[in-house]
Amino acid sequence: MVDSRRESSETLRNKCAACFRQYNRMEHLVEHMKVSYHSVHEPKCGVCRKHCRSFESLREHLIGPLPKVECARVFSVRGCSICLNIFDSNATVRYHRAACQYSRAAPQMPRGGITGRAVALACKMVGGGSDGSMDLCAKVCLIGEDEHIIFQTYVKPILPVTNYRYEVTGIRPEYLRDAMPLKVAQRRIQEILCNGEPLWKLRPRSYGRAKILVGHGLDHDLERLGLEYPAFMIRDTAKYPPLVKTSKLSNSLKYLTQAYLGYDIHTGIQDPYEDCVAAMRLYIRMRSQAHPRDYNSGSGEAQNNYPAWRQRELERMSPEELLALSASDYYCWCLDY
């Protein structure tokens, strides 16, 4: 009986302070911490404080097909299904949700000045090639953090259009007849993004006047526009680890908007302005996460302070001390503040 209690106590000591996995030996817990990249930036359950790799993992933990029973019980009464936070009472949740849930309406204006450090970009594509499957940029939109339009235009594709995809894009041939040439649109967008700052001068965490570029599936949009922009200046909601599926695949912008902003998009003809607004709102929500400021985050394995020469010291640490040494393997958008 004593031996059994000793084993139980030892296993408990080897329990990860973030994801609660238990290990028979402390050295196994240390190996887990080396590769897990737990950090203060991971989504956490407001009931049991378990760290989850993404908000989708947290959503499954709280309201999935097989939720944690106690956490699901508390969340059903005091939880917000949009931001997944837990509040003091059901009345507090109702008051909070009115502010947490966005309206589809946005302050669209013909033109606006560039406000804030970020701009969102979205494109709508028509089809080229013999079967109309080749994406050609036909409309582009950029907005600022205030959701006002900075730049919006139809773009004349450099190849013949064989499918206007009208049911989705709403674009007709006459809209592109006198549209802005692609080269001119490229130059205008580059000027807005760089904001007078030479691209070669840009450095991580020191952007100067250049703008952070926000969007969903930006690799594809930039490729179709023929533009290049530094990866450390891009915030893509299709690639951001806290927003991906539990299988590490991208969620659609439609799903992310419904799940984390609380309204529907793409209910008819799709407007790039609507996509810009959704991506910007998601970015601002993720940027506003109330995380402790950990400026070592996002540099990957080099920042995980578990070198082999410290192995004996690490095995004597508590799970909480091991967690304090761990850094995220992605750049948390809260650090943009």
UniProtKB/TrEMBL annotation:
Q: Which InterPro entries match?
A: REX4_DEDDh_dom, REXO1/3/4-like, Ribonucl_H, RNaseH-like_sf, RNaseH_sf, Znf_C2H2_type
Where does the C2H2-type domain lie?
Answer: 14-43
**Localization:** Nucleus
* Nucleus in keyword set: yes
Print the keywords alphabetically. Answer: Exonuclease, Hydrolase, Metal-binding, Nuclease, Nucleus, Zinc, Zinc-finger
Under PROSITE patterns, the record lists: ZINC_FINGER_C2H2_1, ZINC_FINGER_C2H2_2
Q: Which SMART domains match?
A: EXOIII
Similarity field: Belongs to the REXO4 family.
Protein name stated in the entry:
RNA exonuclease 4
